[in-house]
Design goal:
Layout lengths: L1 H6 L7 H17 L6 E4 L2 E4 H23 L3 H13 L6 H12 L2 H18 L4 H24 L4 H6 L3
Antiparallel strand pairs: 1-2
Helix pairs in contact: 3-4, 5-6
Amino acid sequence: MALYCLFSDSPDLLPEEEDTLAINLERVVNEGRRDDLHIINNGQEQSLESWMLAHLKRMQPLAALLDAHYGGNDYRAAVALMQGKAGHSESTISAQVNSDSKRLGSLWQLGFTLAQQHRESLLQQTLSPNTQAKYEVLAEKSILQQAEIEQSETEDFAEFLQQYR
């Protein structure tokens, strides 16, 4: 997306165009999942879906170049995925968040559930014996260094804080 924007010509942004951008932003933020949403493009009303599809189509050659350079088809697949989502707002991440929040009862509950899933995923990962040993040595050194620092301190904590008041 960033490369596409970099390689695309952009006209000067005049004050009246800034007003149009503000209107478009408000429409997308407030009504972004409405099927017939229109934005203003070059002074004309245009469906958001057709605007997105036009830009995604123009991204395809760049995606093909990136895939040719790096191998695989990740970039073309990403553009194709976004093309599929352009006309199906229910497949966007924000729609999924809304749906999951309703299903679980609240946005807070969704966040809590995702945090628990993430925690479980991390707890199931194990370190190699070498990495585990390395971290145990580092932890031991850290504890010894902390003890040395604490023993060498002669100033009490209240005096230390007083320097910063």
